[in-house]
Design a protein that fits this description.
The complex is a heterodimer of chains A (210) and B (353).
Chain A lengths: L1 H29 L3 H23 L2 H18 L9 H21 L11 E2 L2 E2 L19 H14 L4 H11 L5 H8 L3 H22 L1
Helix pairs in contact in A: 1-2, 2-3, 2-4, 3-4, 4-7, 5-8, 6-8, 7-8
Chain B lengths: L1 H24 L5 H11 L3 H16 L9 H31 L9 H24 L41 E8 L8 E7 L4 E5 L4 H12 L6 H11 L6 H13 L3 H11 L6 H13 L3 H16 L7 H13 L3 H14 L6
Helix pairs in contact in B: 1-3, 6-7, 7-9, 8-9, 8-10, 9-11, 10-11, 11-13, 12-13
The chains are: A mainly alpha (210), B mainly alpha (353).
Chain lengths: 210, 353
């Protein structure tokens, strides 16, 4: 008990020290230090790109979300007032950019999934005919996981942009619902409802696909 | 009938629990809520099965996650660097263009733009001849006035306008257009060039020891509403080398209390670190710790206090300990509460708190 309390205290102090160090980086970046800004980008850009990629499943679109998000951060960094963590502020921007992107995509005809054609001798999965190669094809992933991934990807397209965002941030980014609510500018209760609706829709879609 | 009603209730109960099962599988229930669900699961096989399915579903999701590969990440980073370079070039071009062209906000308003151009034309037509009739007198009125540093017999350069003295600068009307700093090696203070906007632009050059340079920098800090945050940041940064000068120390404390920009207040707090522990500095740090709404500023204040305490430059008294205790209990920032406790331990008498 005593050891765990002591370890908690050490972890808290380490987190506090890291926070202060990051605040120093942010202040330097606000004063025009380009290297400080790039250091901040490199701390979080892999997570941002992962979120974007899992949302849009296309490298080019994920790259657009990445670039637009960080350019907005760069142009608005002088408005950051340390009232929340830099991570939370960054993700607010990223989620806004990603939601805008998702909303534009759902209204574009070319993003509508075509009805898969049945070729002679067997069915052809819709994803097999997409020219885009999944950027992180993992040869070690099991066949079951690949098939499930394809089903889930198709089912995710049926969610609203906000439901999809909440689902991705919860299950693929590992964020708590309270933090997600903070980033999306909404209450935890609203986010819980979004997650519940998203899960119910996904389960229903996956059941239909069996 | 009773059995039917019970069946309906159990169905309704499971319906009530459906959302909680999703949240339980996602690790989002509080311990009390989770215990409530566990009580229900103990006698509801249907919900137990539903929870197992939900947990299996959640456990499979990581397998479907796409990880960006190194090539894509590198491509994104280099694309961002190019975009940042372009943005910086545009900023420079925009600043230069704004000198000659009215602000972009006027162009969508042609009527206002036309009216403004007419007014400018009238003003130039009426005032121009008057200005041209009264040129500045002096041996070289077309050049900027340069104030020089007198550091020793070998470096004295007489001022072309005043004899061996300092050129008076009207700080009420002059604006600072830019600050250039030329660092010199060997521990010498950097050369500073202040580009002044006035009826006739001029430059002030010298180190921070030069009275004119120091006067302009102090004026920037005392009249923050007239200058951009960038200029104020530079002024604080340059004056920190003289933080034991009473005038500079007073101006830095004024900035901590009054500047509207948190980054400038932070910079001023950093600049006060190492200043002699006069009452004004100590009180400024304590005021910032209590009153500043920005948590970053309060963090800097407590860090500076602790740093000065570690160097033996701060002696605690009842007021200071009372402030630290207040912050230890009430500050919304965990780090500040922890640091306040540590400061009490370092500075205060041994007592339980």
């Amino acid at each position: 008990m005593g050891m765990s309390v002591a370890l908690d205290g050490v972890a808290r102090q380490a987190a506090a020290a890291k926070l202060v160090e990051e605040q120093g980086l942010v202040r330097s970046a606000q004063a025009g230090d380009r290297l400080a800004f790039e250091e901040l980008v490199h701390r979080y850009d892999r997570e941002v790109l992962r979120l974007a990629l899992n949302l849009v499943h296309r490298s080019e679109d994920a790259r657009d979300i990445y670039q637009e998000s960080f350019m907005r951060v760069y142009k608005n960094l002088h408005r950051f007032r340390f009232e929340c963590s830099f991570y939370t502020w960054l993700y607010r921007i990223v989620t806004n950019v990603a939601l805008d992107h998702l909303r534009r995509r759902t209204s574009r005809r070319e993003d509508q999934a075509p009805v898969p054609e049945e070729a002679e001798g067997g069915t052809r999965d819709f994803f097999d005919r997409q020219p885009e190669v999944r950027p992180a094809a993992n040869p070690e992933r099991s066949l079951l996981g690949q098939e499930l991934g394809q089903h889930i990807s198709a089912a995710l397209k049926r969610l609203s942009p906000r439901e999809r965002m909440v689902f991705e941030m919860k299950h693929y980014q590992g964020l708590k619902l309270r933090a997600i609510g903070d980033m999306l500018g909404t209450s935890e209760e609203t986010v819980k409802n979004s997650l519940f609706r998203a899960t119910r829709k996904l389960r229903a879609s996956l059941d239909c696909m069996r | 009938m009773l059995q039917d009603r019970n069946q309906n209730n159990s169905n309704q109960a499971c319906g009530d629990f459906e959302e909680r099962l999703v949240l339980l599988a996602a690790g989002e229930l509080t311990p009390d809520e989770a215990a409530d669900v566990a009580d229900h699961l103990a006698h509801c096989a249907r919900c137990s099965t539903a929870l197992e399915c939900e947990q299996e579903f959640v456990a499979l999701l990581p397998q479907t996650r796409i990880e960006p590969d190194a090539a894509l990440l590198a491509s994104c980073r280099s694309g961002l660097e190019d975009a940042l370079d372009l943005q910086e070039e545009r900023s420079w071009a925009r600043r230069i263009a704004n000198i000659f062209v009215p602000a972009g906000g006027l162009t969508p308003r042609p009527a206002w733009s036309a009216a403004l151009l007419v007014m400018i034309g009238f003003s130039v037509g009426i005032l121009g001849p008057r200005l041209l009739q009264h040129p500045r007198t002096g041996p070289d009125s077309s050049k900027s006035i340069v104030s020089t540093e007198t550091t020793g017999p070998g470096n004295i350069t007489p001022d072309p306008v005043t004899e061996g003295g300092v050129m008076p600068i009207d700080l009420h009307s002059a604006q600072v257009a830019g600050i250039n700093v030329m660092r010199s090696g060997g521990g010498e203070p950097p050369q500073i060039e202040l580009q002044m906007k006035a009826r006739q632009p001029f430059r002030v050059q010298g180190t921070v020891n030069n009275p004119d340079v120091k006067g302009v920098l102090l004026n920037i800090l005392r009249n923050s509403d007239r200058f951009d945050p960038d200029v104020r940041l530079d002024a604080v940064d340059l004056l920190r080398a003289k933080n034991n000068d009473p005038e500079v120390r007073s101006a830095l404390c004024h900035v901590v209390h009054t500047d509207s920009n948190a980054a400038v207040r932070l910079k001023a707090l950093e600049a006060l670190n190492g200043a002699e522990p006069q009452d004004l500095v100590r009180q400024t740090l304590l005021d910032a710790l209590v009153d500043d709404r920005n948590p970053g500023v309060r963090v800097e204040a407590i860090n500076t206090l602790r740093s000065m305490a570690a160097q033996g430059k701060v002696v605690s008294d009842d007021h200071m300990l009372a402030v630290l205790r207040d912050r230890m209990q009430k500050d919304p920032n965990t780090y500040i509460r922890l640091q306040s406790a540590a400061a009490i331990r370092d500075l205060g008498p041994s007592e339980k708190f």
